[in-house]
Design goal:
single chain; 2 domains; seven-stranded mixed beta sheet; two-stranded antiparallel ribbon; 7 helices; 9 strands
């Protein structure tokens, strides 16, 4: 396993988690490669990664570098068995359409995907309103990354306020520790440390992408949920080269 990390706070934090998981599950980290956020040519970076011959290439990147990293990887002869993990960018329609088929095979995190179990009538109704407004003002036409989660967050706040008839922070916190909230993300409850009681961060694999049209991403056929298992909509195509 090789870690490829943008020199920024988000990426370094994601790498800490990757290293903890690698240790827990018995993966050997061959090398940790970092690059400045101002990097635009990633050929030499991919050359360095390729030297490790890693099976797993874990990417921690931002928007612009996510695009150029994937382009550089696809232009290179190196083919690890799995690619992705913690890239910011592939969640947005602009990056999906910029890369198109180059995304095929990549496995990366998402918060929501239009797949069975998540594409509930409530979520779809909310996204229909969002997408209509998004088209009018020229923002992300899909809204899958942030809109359902942000809407659910406000539903949690609204339900806590209604149940407690209070705006006091401590009162709302106390209520949220034991309550279950009905949201467009499904039922939400919180554990003792304030995290979701049931893990909800998804890993999706991009596959079957043809061309650069954003409309092909409206259903779950182009990004299949492969983890966590209880929310999966399919199994990963492995190794990476088979999904290209």
């Amino acid at each position: 396993m090789t870690l490829l990390i943008a020199d920024a706070e988000f990426s370094r934090n994601a790498a800490i988690g990757a290293k903890a998981n690698a240790e827990q599950y018995g993966f050997t980290i061959l090398r940790e490669v970092s690059y400045p956020l101002a990097t635009t040519n990633f050929a030499a970076v991919i050359d360095e990664v390729a030297e490790t011959g890693c099976d797993l290439l874990f990417l921690c990147s931002y928007l612009a570098d996510s695009i150029e990293l994937i382009r550089a990887l696809r232009a290179h002869s190196f083919r690890p068995k799995m690619v992705g993990g913690a890239m910011i960018g592939p969640q947005s329609a602009s990056v999906k359409t910029a890369l198109g088929p180059l995304l095929n095979g990549v496995v990366n995190y998402e918060y929501w995907a239009p797949v069975p179990g998540m594409a509930t009538p409530a979520a779809q109704a909310m996204l229909e309103v969002y997408q209509t407004r998004a088209a009018e003002i020229g923002v992300d036409p899909l809204g899958h990354y942030m809109a359902p989660l942000a809407y659910a967050q406000m539903q949690v706040v609204a339900q806590a306020v209604e149940a407690t008839e209070s705006l006091d922070d401590d009162t709302l916190i106390s209520y949220a520790r034991t309550a279950t909230f009905r949201t467009v993300m499904g039922d939400v409850a919180f554990g003792p440390n304030g995290e979701w009681r049931e893990p909800r961060v998804l890993q999706v694999q991009f596959r079957g992408i043809v061309g650069n049209d954003a409309q092909q991403f409206k259903d779950g056929s182009r990004h299949v949920v492969v983890a966590p298992r209880h929310m999966a909509s399919g199994t990963a195509i492995f190794p990476y080269a088979l999904a290209l």
